[in-house]
What we know:
Blueprint: H1 3-13, E1 17-22, H2 24-36, E2 41-45, E3 51-52, E4 55-58, E5 70-74, H3 80-90, E6 94-97, H4 108-118, E7 122-124, E8 130-133, E9 138-141, E10 153-158, H5 161-169, E11 176-181, H6 190-197, E12 203-210, H7 216-228, E13 232-237, H8 252-255, H9 258-269, E14 272-274, H10 277-290, E15 298-302, H11 305-318, H12 327-336, E16 347-348, H13 357-371, E17 375-379, H14 391-408, E18 412-416, H15 424-432, E19 436-439, H16 441-463, E20 479-480, H17 483-492, E21 500-503, H18 505-515, E22 519-523, H19 531-534, E23 537-541, H20 544-561, E24 570-574, E25 581-590, E26 594-601, H21 606-609, E27 612-616, H22 621-630, H23 634-637, H24 648-665, E28 669-679, E29 684-686, E30 689-693
Parallel strand pairs: 1-2, 1-5, 2-4, 5-6, 6-7, 10-11, 10-12, 12-13, 13-14, 15-16, 15-17, 17-18, 18-19
Antiparallel strand pairs: 3-4, 8-9, 8-11, 20-30, 21-24, 22-23, 22-24, 25-26, 25-28, 26-27, 28-29, 28-30
Helix pairs in contact: 3-4, 6-7, 10-16, 11-16, 12-13, 13-14, 18-20, 22-24
Amino acid sequence: MTPQRRANFQRLLKPRHIAFIGGRDATIAVREARRRGFQGQMWAVNPKRTDLDGVHCVPAIADLPEVPDAVYLAIPAGGVVTALRELAQMGVRGVVCFSAGFKETGDTRAEQALIEATGDMALIGPNCYGLINYIDNAALWSFEHGGWSPGYGAAIITQSGMFSSDITMSARSLPLAYMVSAGNQAVLGLEDFLDAFSENPAVRAIGLHIEGLQDIPAFERAALKAIERGVAVVALKTGSSAIGAALTVSHTGSLSGSDELYEALFARTGVISVTSPAQFLETLKFLCVVGAPAGARVAGFTCSGGGATMLADHAEKIGLSFPEVGTEGHTALSDLLPDIATVSNPLDYTTPIWGQPEHTYPVFSTALTTINADAAVLVQDYPAPGLDASKIYYENDAGAFAQAAQEQGIPAAICATLPENTSEETRMRLISLGVAPMQGIHETLNAMRDAAVWSDRRRRIADARPAPLLAGIASDAPHMLTEDAGKAWLSSRGGSIPNGRSVTAKEAKNAAQQIGFPVALKMMSPNLAHKTEAGAVALGINDDRALDVALTQMKRTVAEYDAHAVTDSFLVEAMSPTPLAEMIVTLRSDPQFGPALVLGSGGVLTELVGDAVTLLLPATPDDIAQALNSLRAARLLNGFRGRAPADVDKLADALHHLCEIFIQDRQSVAEIEINPMFIYPDHIVAVDALIHVTSL
């Protein structure tokens, strides 16, 4: 946003007066402004009506009594551009454009005219529900809405109007600060809203529903700004696209499509990525009510053995830690608990002391102190309406738990096993106690884990802010180098490859003798992207006779696979020793996200296992080391079954060098796929390489 548009957006958020332009939809917006409690002046523009739900109409924009801060525009698409020009000339600060019929229908020319007519005004839409300000009670909104705010909360920006409406109606007691339905994002995009809301002290977390981003570098800057300011961002990414799918012959498309690139962007910037609407809301609620824990050590409490097991089972799956109770804590808790209780974490404190805060508070306090927890959770499913006899017991334990957690200064949650087993009254009471009222054990633990990861990522970004992403490059259709040419390119830039010779069939025997048996034989053809499938690879050839047999068989097999692929060009290479692991290493340039690195389990396991991670570039050696350690294949690098462990830092340095040479040449090199890359204790070797270039 320009400085003027940023100032105009702030006025749009908190207008002194609003003009509603249109008919039926504008009437709904008038009602929703009243529902929100807007106390400012309201005017209406409609040449055919006397009023919109009691708001007096003037026939034209020029007849407004003064320049409104904000305008809700809901007229046919054909009149929108003219109206926007007039509003901009008047000096209107901001517009919510409900009107549809622009880019979403394929009319990009009309949308461009809308953008030009807007000038410096802050415009949300077109084709959107609008804006709700829960802090200052203002709304330019197109549908009945709910939601509440205690004076702080989440700022939520969605690309779906109905989803934003659904959120306001949810029975989850999520504190809200602002709601924006972004629509087409013709003028203001998700990146702009993210940047602006990260500066707002009422915003404790930001929720993004993303179908697609328009400006990746701007999003990166805004997301890093948010995490540096301590504002967590939670993203629900929906939909898929064909971004970066031009190269279909490599394995990369199955390992790192657009979704993986988005996930890499989120990981790079500390954005918490979730996969369901329920998890989206529960994570935001946890962050808004109690904030993020410093670490992943959790103390859990239940009044049921089954509940404790559910906590422990899911925590183990997601990497959340319920530390064991130490000797000192075990002794102290044994003295406080009934004889039927077993000291553990999660802890079932059992029904004999249930609802008796004089007994449960010491248990909570002692456990939190001795475990040295970063966060705490208590499982409680409250009785249904009308079954109130036992409710006081739940409330007593909730109060004791909240007190103990507050004294330790750690975020705490009370979660219902079943999401519906907590009423609005209960949720609001828990929030007043400083406890997050969570709904669903899995959602609760996921939120805690993700919030702890966010805290760690924030510390890492504070220590070393990621370098700005490199811009994407649009290129002509690339063509594939033969493996020998690709390896020559790698070797000339410091890459490690097996000792080999490019030869004809007649020269193969002499080359093998010079290299030394055993050798590998590969037919070189620009028509063979995957040589193994075509029978164009023979391994472990131990003598001249075996080499002759391999040459004869290979020519016949390749001819059956694709007669046009048969050539008299071969690569004879020394067989590489058995590695610690085989990996796939891919470098590609995406037109939207820029260059990216993909690391994964390689060889025959590439697509079968699907063990891969994507990093956007530039990345540091430390980033690459962390990515290596995140793979399931990392076990092979850490001394698996008594073998020597790999020096992961050296491997990361070697892979970082590969990234650097790709970045330097990415104007001419579209993609490098090395599969397999043999991983040894202190070095890597490109055993097979598939390189696509636009020019060299």
